[in-house]
# Entry
Amino acid sequence: QVQLVESGGGVVQPGRSLRLSCAASGFTFKEFGMHWVRQAPGKGLEWVSIIWYDGSNSYYADSVKGRFTISRDNSKHMVFLQMNSLGPEDTGIYYCVRGYYAGYPPFGLWGQGTLVTVSS
Amino acid sequence: DVVMTQSPLSLPVTLGQSASISCRSSQSLVDSDGNTYLYWFHQRPGQSPRRLIYKVSNRDSGVPDRFSGSGSGTDFTLKISRVEAEDIGVYYCMQGTHWPPFTFGPGTRVEIK
# Structure
């Protein structure tokens, strides 16, 4: 079954860190770039980060640059988002999303999301 | 960054009637490779977004042909003909030409009258 399953969300105090994980299955994970997209409560979608298929390159939204780090382990079919110096503005659902590979336009596969709440 | 705008932000529709959502970008979305990377997504309440359309007008597998995308340059439209109850939710456009960042529109909430 082709799917993405996120985990690692929870309640965290401002200034603390959290690491999100995304497990991929049902497709050749190592060939696809991967994204994180988030959604604040009751708000729209915000792209967060992308990592290349081989982990060689990554980009971030300005709102998280310097605080978040995306990484992946192709041997385990996993992608991660290390989030540091969290603030209330980082509260929301974080979605893992499949990126581009030849013949497969990006953003066609989304996980169910994991909720991050930053609150004291 | 490319700014994406949508109108209307709220769209009450009658079942069986058609609906159109406009999406505009702050600059042309035509890439140097000649493609236009404009996508449409649908998010039902409590669910993850689902891609409907890629590269302006290409319907994803399993998406009813009631959905169609059109446009060019900076102006794009998603049309839903014969709206059904399952079509309610929020529709987002997104550009993937000038990244990073990828940018989404604010969303259009479709509800049944």
Remarks:
- Chain A touches chain B at residues 35, 37, 44-47, 50, 59-62, 95, 105-108, 110-113 (CB under 8 Å).
- The beta strands of chain A are 3-7, 10-12, 18-25, 34-39, 45-51, 58-60, 68-73, 78-83, 92-98, 114-118.
- The longest strand of chain A covers residues 18-25.
